[in-house]
């Protein structure tokens, strides 16, 4: 989405926040290059679903001058541990800089309201494009291309439901804790802490790291029933549902 005016300035990165993949960054030292800032949480399925696009934009446009910055602001207890954040960055093979904003200092400077949220700043440090939530990937990439002076076919839909022409049904609302019961969605996730195992519809699933775990994935939106049972050593903070494409009526 384009901002209503073209002179909204980029907030500075707080000087004492820790970083992964880079010693530290200053926003005022980025002048002359566009900067994409994405607020993200490795415990949130929506953040993990946007990650392939953000990684692709870094790979595609960093050589042309784009600086991509992921800002980790925790929405669940496992994300409040700096070591867990660094481990997630390594596990997910994130190569671009990650700002670890455990106290929501940068979040407040942006007056941000949720995950994921991305802000694209031009070389003069003014807001060029922004988007809240999933989606809008083509629009963001075209805005990046405009700023770096390149033209190429944008990244295609990573998930079928990312296609703007796809028909999507509303999924079941996220549930606190471990949920068992009926749902409608394209996939089921759990936000987990600890280690051990759980049972998903009778199948054993190993839990080796904290964060969002994909439990069930369907090729399209379905109405089904979930049976989620936790083993010892595992904590479930939320059960989350992500959308799926609605098949046309037969």
Topology of helices and strands:
Layout: E1 19-20, E2 35-40, H1 45-61, E3 67-72, H2 82-91, E4 98-100, H3 105-110, E5 117-121, E6 127-132, H4 137-148, E7 175-176, E8 181-194, E9 196-200, E10 203-207, E11 211-226, E12 228-230, E13 234-242
What does this structure look like?
The chain has helices at residues 45-61, 82-91, 105-110, 137-148; strands spanning 19-20, 35-40, 67-72, 98-100, 117-121, 127-132, 175-176, 181-194, 196-200, 203-207, 211-226, 228-230, 234-242. It is α+β, with helices and mostly antiparallel strands and 250 residues long. The strands form three sheets. Strands 1-4-3-2-5-6 form a six-stranded mixed β-sheet, with helices on one face. It has a four-stranded antiparallel β-sheet with strand order 7-13-8-11, with helices on one face. Strands 10-9-12 form a three-stranded antiparallel β-sheet, with no helix packed on it. The radius of gyration is 19 Å and the shape is globular. The mean pLDDT is 96.
